[in-house]
Amino acid sequence: MTSTVGGHQPEPDARFAALLAAEDKALALLDRIESSGLIRAGRSEREIEREIRGLAADAFGIDKHWHKRIVRAGSNTLAVAGDNPPVRTVGEDDLVFLDLGPVLEAWEADVGRSYVVGDDPVKHALVAELPRQFRALKDRFDADPEITGAALYAFACESAEAAGWRFGGEIAGHIVAEFPHARIPGRKQAHHISPDNPDPMRGPDPLDRQRHWIGEIHLVSPDGAFGGFYERLLDRPE
Question: Is the model more confident about 13 or about 76?
Answer without folding.
Answer: 76
